[in-house]
């Protein structure tokens, strides 16, 4: 694989990560809304509601960390490496 191919693949990978981030965010929002709306009908006791709310909060926090920290950090790192690769390919 040539360096030009690597550049192209990095663009594709970065785009896929950005799409994953957007999809994860949409799904997080959708699931949180759906669970929140059905809380009263799904869980009869306050204990059940509290336990489920803890689980929902953990899922929400994990997804939020994925969307706001992990994926952006990977994308930023790849973009920096892509910049280095471009300077190597086109400045020499």
Can you describe what's shown?
The protein is built from 2 helices and no strands. The radius of gyration is 20 Å and the shape is rod-shaped. 0% of the residues are buried. 93% of the residues lie in helices and 0% in strands. Helix 1 runs antiparallel to helix 2 (46-91).
What summary fits the major beta sheet?
A: none
Low-confidence blocks of residues = none
How far is it from the N-terminal to the C-terminal residue, by CA?
19 Å
Residue fraction in strands: under 5%
Roughly what percent helix? over 70%
Q: Which whole number gives the mean pLDDT?
A: 86
Strand element count: 0
Overall spatial form: rod-shaped
Structural class: mainly alpha
Provide the gyration radius in Å: 20 Å
Number of helices: 2
Order of helices and strands: HH
Q: Could you name the key traits of this structure?
A:
92 residues, mainly alpha, 2 helices, 93% helix, rod-shaped
Question: Can you lay out the helices and strands and say which pair or pack?
Answer:
Layout lengths: L2 H40 L3 H46 L1
Helix pairs in contact: 1-2
In short:
The protein is an all-alpha fold. It is built from two helices and no strands.
